[in-house]
Structure formats: C-alpha cells, structure tokens
Write a structure and sequence with these properties.
By secondary structure, the protein is of the alpha/beta class. Helix content is 47%, strand content 18%. Helix 2 packs across helix 6 (177-185) and helix 4 (105-119) crosses helix 5.
Length: 237
C-alpha cells in the first residue's frame, strides 16, 4: 500500500481480530433516521456505499452528503445527478482541492465539527481509515480532530473504495444494484478512464458470495460507535 504502512496494517488486524470470531450479520436497514456521508471525492459515495444509501432513502430515511473536494463544473453536474438517484436531500460542498485534505486537515476538522452540529447525524459514513488514497485517510484523521473538539454520539459505517476492509456488517443491495450502477454511471468524467461500475460490481458480488444468502450484490462495512472508531483510529493512524 502506498499510503498505509505495514505497521498500521498490523495494528489494524490486531484491533479487529476480536470481531472475526463472530458471523457477520446481514443488516436489513440502517439503525438510523438521519444519515450523513463524508465523500472525499465526488463519486466515492456512489462507489463505496451507494446501494445502502438508496435502500435507506427508499425506506423513508434522510440522507445528506458532504463532498470534501471539488473538480470543476462538469463533475459538479454529475454529482447532482448521482445524488438525486441516491436520494440525498441536501449536499454540502466543502470545496477543497483534490489531494490537499492531508495538508488542510485542521480546516477540514473544523468544517466537520460545524457540519455535525448542523446535521446531528445518527450515522456517519466515512472511508475506511486505511483506504488506499491520501485524501481518504485524511478523512479519519480529521474526524479524530473534530471529535476532540466536540464529542458527538453517532454510529460510524466505514466503507471501502480503494482497499478492501474487514467488515462486521453486510447489507444486501441486490434489489437496488441497478440504481447504484446508474449513480456511478453519472460520473462519466471518471468512468471514461476507469471502469468503476465493474470495480464496484466485482466487490459487491464477492461479498454476496461470502455471505451466501441467495444474494447477488452486497456492500460491506466496518461498523462502530464513533467513540470506538476514534479509539481504533488513534491506534492505527
């Protein structure tokens, strides 16, 4: 891994080891009404957890998405189209430049604190803390700083984009896979150079086989209270 060193990976495995003794539950719906997704880039939300978000909003749940970086007007239009498919009620555009989240971590943490105060989310989706991109890793570091500034009581669902994670909960997205595919497909500027639909589909099919419950596509997450996730991140990052 380019951005996550081996020591961090070993610490992660040591921390997660107790979770591996239990069978991963299949979660039918999120234990929440109000959900906030932190997306480092405009497309991570659809690739990493789009199916679960669609199921949540179809069941009447509230969804807001915070996009940390911006990448021009064309991608902004793609983001609005994808967000509509996901069912997001409100989008927050933090307007950082791509690959600057690490160097802007203090300001990012401040904006997280303000955002959490405004939204009061029951569940926060973030990239898994060693997801293999510097902007993705920066999200958990900023979350640590934000939590130190202001304690909140939310559940964390960590999702993967660039690095598979060790999950402790799985969501069956078989019935909404077509909608997730459409959401990812909105990002034509990104899928022109990389097949993100295939990437997301392959991973979703893998977890469906792992779970073995007559499913075709699943999303997997590392779920924890924010207190537990912060404690975990302190040991690894």
């Amino acid at each position: 891994m380019k951005y996550a060193n081996y020591r961090s990976v070993f610490k992660m495995y040591e921390y997660i080891q107790p979770f591996l003794k239990y069978s991963m539950p299949m979660e039918e719906k999120l234990p929440a009404g109000k959900v906030l997704v932190i997306a480092p880039h405009q497309d991570d939300e659809s690739i990493g957890c789009g199916g679960t978000l669609i199921k949540h909003t179809q069941n009447g749940g509230h969804l807001e998405i915070a996009f940390c970086t911006s990448d021009g007007s064309e991608r902004m239009n793609e983001t609005k189209a994808a967000s509509k498919i996901l069912g997001s009620k409100i989008n927050h555009f933090l307007q950082f430049q791509i690959r600057t989240l690490s160097s802007s971590n203090g300001e990012l943490a401040k904006q997280f604190t303000e955002l959490f105060d405004r939204v009061s989310p029951d569940v926060i989706f973030v990239p898994f803390l060693i997801d293999n991109h510097q902007d993705h890793i920066a999200i958990s570091k900023a979350l640590l700083k934000s939590y130190k500034q202001r304690k909140i009581d939310s559940m964390i669902y960590a999702y993967s984009v660039w690095t598979t994670l060790i999950p402790n909960v799985i969501v069956d997205i078989s019935d909404v896979w077509d909608e997730k595919e459409k959401a990812i497909g909105c990002y034509k500027t990104q899928t022109a150079t990389r097949d993100y639909v295939k990437m997301a589909s392959s991973l979703a099919q893998y977890w469906a086989v792992v779970k073995g419950k007559n499913t075709t596509h699943c999303e997997a997450f590392f779920r924890a209270s924010i207190q537990e996730y912060v404690s975990f991140a302190k040991k690894v990052l």
